[in-house]
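User: What would this chain look like folded?
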Amino acid sequence: MYISLSWRNIWRNKKRTIIVASSVFFAVILAAVMRSAQLGSYSYMIDSSAKLFTGYLQIQGEDYWEKRSLDESIVIDKTTFDKLTKIPYVTHITPRLEAFALISHETTTKVSQVIGIEPILEDKITEVKEKLIKGTYLNNDSRGLLMGSGLAGMLKSDIGDSIVIYGQGYHGQIAAAIVPISGIVKLPFKAMNNAMILLPLPLAQEIFSCEDRITSLPILIDNIHHLEEVEESVNQLLVEGQKSMLWNEMLPDLEQNIEVDNVSGIIMLAILYIVIAFGVFGTVMMMVSERAKEFAILISVGMRRRRLLLILAIETFMVSFVGVVIGILGSMPIIFYLVHNPINLSGEMAELYDQLSIEPILNFSAQPSIFISQALVVLIIAIVTIIYPLLFVRRLDPAKTIRG
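Assistant: Here's the prediction, encoded as structure tokens.
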């Protein structure tokens, strides 16, 4: 009876009900879209950095991250590699041999990062083959290299030109070779594009005297929430002199930027919630004031105050609930569209992303928790506003109100 009566009451004044429900509706949409943009961006930043640089976790030598020396390279035998690929939630693994060397062509010399890769496995992670703009992609038997288009421009080199690689190999041995350019790639970030060379892993191991050795083994997983479980499984397969590192240990600046941005985003949401709370509260105050005589008459004819309070609480909850439900339904198509059509950033934001070595794309997330959490927060705010009409009715003097 109370529910039926409350439902009829809220639709006696349709305009007022629509105003309250609309304020909650737009609040849920704004909050959901804002949070979707935040979580989507964080997820993309981590995933993008993991694919291009570190993996979600990485196996490496005990002191490699501090020294970045080929002397800290490790050997991962085939049996261990196969066991790693079979760990639950692991999607991709690729071995890399990373070093720095002088790169020369004719009279120009540059310092470059030289990375030995397994071409097929690397392409599954970084999709480097799609970035090829000229020449041919590598395979394990290739004797050529891939060069960033920016670096190729600096060296004034092209497909077929021979590049001199000169550096230090394993245990101080001289690393020197003349390698032709097989392909030129357009890498996503200026810093990479201007200073990176990719070699087939066997050729890189030969040049740097690192037979069967690698400096890192990045591992990708299907979901970051499984990271701790995967790390435990990986650690069980490691031998002395090897360790695993998580993405946030290798990229502390990225983690810090995410944390700072998350706090600022939560503050913005809190401000939005405060605005919503005042809007709903003001509407409820207006609704209660307009119905003061109605409440006084009902109390005068014998209706108990607690029953009237219960009806008011149900009415406020119903209006808020309608707004929340419609808000969730309204935010879903917007967020799903943005998830499948991310926004390309430009200007200062694009430059900021480039400095973080992240493609300037604003991604969105469609995690169910986004809709549920924002809807619950807005609904709680609306329910809290029930306190005012409850206090109003408890203090109501029927005689004064009816005479007034």
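The longest helix spans residues 14-54. If you want, I can go into more detail on any region.
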